[in-house]
# Entry
Amino acid sequence: MSVGLLIISHNDVGRAMLNATVAMLGVNPLRVALMSVTTEDEPDELRQQARELVREVDRGEGVLVLTDLYGSTPSNIANCEYAEHQVNVVAGLNMPMLLRILNYPKLGLEELTEKAVSGGTDGVMRCPGKAP
Amino acid sequence: MSVGLLIISHNDVGRAMLNATVAMLGVNPLRVALMSVTTEDEPDELRQQARELVREVDRGEGVLVLTDLYGSTPSNIANCEYAEHQVNVVAGLNMPMLLRILNYPKLGLEELTEKAVSGGTDGVMRCPGKAP
# Structure
């Protein structure tokens, strides 16, 4: 058993990042659903879609929802109510975050949520050798 | 005058994120070049391409190079030598980073580099209301 993953992003941001990360790892150890949000989409339908996808990927261990930008529409959708499902939401999606998550597929929801935040944060860095 | 921007990412990650961010802002205030790196690409050619793109976007104020994952091929390309050009490299590309950068188009290279790191880091968060 493992946590489910739902990525809610602007357009193809989530898909591009997931494809690149899974190609690099050579395997996708988690159940992942993707949701692309465009400006044409209707928020109520998006929330409904998010709830359906959470139901699809939840096997009783909960769902980690990742989104790209806190305060934007995908993030507002990500933060909707999911009724009986246990859901944590992390914003600021980047490849280090996704890689860290996919490297710990056996963790529970709380631990995986912490890994998402630490992986995403640790991965933002000024590259060495370029200091003034 | 302003700093140039070069985004070097796996496949379409950079393009997807730039398109979404610019669509949200309604404007792109910086000169931006994109480089998509696939597993088929030859590193020497990629480095050559990166140098050409840095030359294209540099108007004398330097270039900020963003990449998605430190230690991966796009990041290794991003950290190549750029001869006479002043270049800083930041890894961990996410939408909050890109949005922060595009919100400060008049900053110099050092200040913009700091904004990239702080914007990217600040944007990684567990969303409120979802704490246990």
Summary: The mean pLDDT of chain A is 95. Chain A touches chain B through 46 residues (CB under 8 Å). The helical segments of chain A are 13-25, 43-57, 73-78, 95-102, 109-122. The longest strand of chain A covers residues 4-10.
